[in-house]
Amino acid sequence: MPNAILDPTGSVKSKAAKAAAPRAHRPASLKGARVGLLINTKQNARPFLEEVGRLLEEKYDVTLTKRTKVNFAVPEPDEVIKELVADNDVVITGVGDCGSCSAAAAADGVVLEAAGVPVAAIITDSFIPTADAMAALRGAPGYKYATTAHPVAVLTEDKVKERAAQVLDDVVGLLTDQGNGGA
Amino acid sequence: MTADVPDGAAADDAVPAAPDPDEAPDPDEAQRAIEYCYEQGWSDGLPLVPVSTPLLDRFLATTDKDPDEIIGSLEQVGRDVDVRTAAINAAMAGCKPEYFPVVLAAFDALMRERAARGGGFQSTSGPAPLIVVNGPIRQELGFNTAGGAFGPGFRPNMTIPRAVGLIVRNAFGIHPHVLEQATQGVPGRWSICVAENEEESPWEPFAENGGVTGGVSAVSATLTRTMEFVDNRHTPNHEDVLRDFQDTIGRIGSLIFPQTSVALVLCPEHAQMFAAAGMSKADVQNWLIERSGRTGREFRVMGKESVATKTFHGPFEGDDAFHAILSGPKQIPVIVAGAKNAAISMVVRIFGEWSGTAVPVVEKK
After folding, report:
1. Do residues B79 and A11 lie in contact, with contact meaning Cβ atoms separated by under 8 Å?
2. Chain A closest CA to B100's CA: distance in Å?
């Protein structure tokens, strides 16, 4: 009987790995909702999310709160998640336009959803595989988010606003039980 | 048979005797085992050494660590790596069992770096670990400490960084095109391990700068985005040579934030030239810290006003302001490597920051 060839992948999962993460219950409408913008500090992320927020204020009379991610490359620490949950009815995060920050946007989304807050994560379409892989690792395979064409960092101010307007319906769809936007 | 040398470490050995066909291993079985490893998705693209329990046990026997001890975590992907898994990957990479304490020290050193824990392995930059080895372990294990410092040709220099790469792939589950999103990546990723040429360095070993003194074997590690050579064998004036380094360090294409970090991997000839001019490592560092950078105009015409700012996301300092890019000695560590046969050195671009911490190599008591 020959020796077995050993598996190098290990079987050790850290506490960050989750079996299955539930999706938050959606409101019927964003009317008067408290909307948190979680800005990941990547170039153009702030104007992009602020424009999405402004359009939501106009259309749905939402109240905005803004904060920047502690570190764009990794998921937010527990205490920040707690504050986001306490302060907001829904959260919009992005713009995931790099390897680690797109994955982190998906991870933040899954964690906030499990804590009961609907999330619209916005990533650029170059990073769909890595966002999907991260969501699956976090116990939410098939997790839905919104995408916009890559790149975002080099867009002019006007183009950023155009993009924000284009993604708005998907964002609303993701955050409410109306439709299946962003799928 | 021809006198092929199987690896550089054996270069000084006598030509090996022709193998006895009855004693030779079964190549067909070996090939099946190698293909099996490919089929499991474990490989970085090159053949792996299939690992069995007896081989694993030889690796584990080189350390006092418990095989179950966790030696690294990547929180964002929810994966930990233990000593046993690291050993399997080191064996697969082609390491000898006695290299394993160096693999452990290298992995420890790398995982102490915020840039490695914070998404570096997933980054579009596709950064490569740069591993630096100091102390008597270099001779004991047959590291290349001389010419061709960045390889290839020497088993420990090539297989130890590969072991780190396989741990990232297999134990952390970071695969290209999925959680690894390198745009182009660094040539020679997972193969950069420099054993410092302490014998021809005029200065203290690099590990001493990282806190390990007394000639103890130690490993330091960081992530690098690439390296650029400075070939200057043209002048006896050391300040001319420093200006040549200053020019390369200030190359705008490599700058994305207001501050940057580079490692100077100096050839012995450059290092000795600076030392002969009375300069310590700190003097070389300070000379370059003071002068490395460009004017705001030079950044602006390349669309990089956002780099020429005092603070991250701060305002553009203006066309005429000189924007210094190195803020202190931590941003420009100095290592001596290579042969003393030409004045060719390397400016290594650090991904993020490098603490420079040296981790002692701990062998089994």
Report:
1. no
2. 15
Q: Does B170 touch chain A (CB under 8 A)?
A: yes
- As beta bridge partners, residue B270 has none
pTM assigned to the model: 0.91
DSSP secondary structure string, B105-153? HHHHHHHTSHHHHTTGGG-TT--EEEEEEESTHHHHTT---SSSTT-SS
Residues A9, B42: C-beta atoms closer than 8 Å: yes
DSSP B309: B
Angle, vertex CA A84, rays to CA A80 and CA A87, nearest 5 = 135
Residue B158 identity (one-letter amino acid): M
Q: Do B85 and A8 touch (CB under 8 A)?
A: yes
Q: How far is B89 from chain A (nearest CA, A)?
A: 6
Partner-chain contact B79 A10, CB within 8 Å: yes
Q: Is the Cβ of A9 closer than 8 Å to some Cβ of chain B?
A: yes
| Pair B94, B34: CB distance under 8 Å | no
A101 interfacial to chain B (CB closer than 8 Å): yes
State how far the Cα of A80 lies from the Cα of A112, in Å rounded to an integer.
10
B178: contact with A, CB 8 A cutoff: yes
Residue A79 makes CB contacts below 8 A (sequence gap 6+) with: none
Inter-chain residue contact B92 with A8, CB threshold 8 Å: yes
Q: What is the pLDDT along chain B (365 residues), one digit of tens a residue?
A: 333 444 444 444 556 677 777 788 899 999 999 999 999 999 999 999 999 999 999 999 999 999 999 999 998 888 999 999 999 999 999 999 999 999 999 999 999 999 999 999 999 999 999 999 999 999 999 999 999 999 899 999 999 999 999 999 999 999 999 999 999 999 999 999 999 999 999 999 999 999 999 999 999 999 999 999 999 999 999 999 999 999 999 999 999 999 999 999 999 999 999 999 999 999 999 999 999 999 999 999 999 999 999 988 899 999 999 999 999 999 999 999 999 999 999 999 999 999 999 999 999 98
